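Reopening this ticket.

The earlier resolution said the output was attached, but the attachment link was broken on my side. Pasting everything inline this time so it's all in one place.
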Amino acid sequence: MMTLQIEPIGTVVGGRQEVADDNWGGVESIIRLDPKFPIDVVRGLGEFSHLVVTWHFSKASPEDVALHARSPRNDPRWEPSGTFVHRNHRRPNQLAISFPRLLGADGLDLHVTDLDAVDGTPVYDLAPYFKEMGPRGDVCEPAWPSEMLKDYWAEA
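Inline output:
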């Protein structure tokens, strides 16, 4: 397999300072794009309500990666499931994808809410969210994600 080397396109500024499992609702932050980019890279972005943001769990350690089945949040109420069933820092590349609401753009500063990444997090890619590119058909999942994430978007 080929190794991919990528560089951040920006950084999360503001919002939460510490990682937390819940209460990400209403957290406002800025995705500050690298000033090496011309302003034209965000032209038209303000017409969209949401973004798709790829970021790195930069506060995690490579030792956090867990390549085995485990209960979500280590809670024995939920059956163990594999690494690629979880959406956390224990994944091999420690990357995440979030769908924050875009509040506005000020030059290369993108003001967002509901981005579940902390201050200083490197951002590796972003794009507008297109409804047509979202899931097709019915979305199915077991009960545990809804149970586990019931307070995820509660107000901070």
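Reporter confirms the inline version is readable. The first strand starts at residue 10 and ends at 13. The mean pLDDT is 96.
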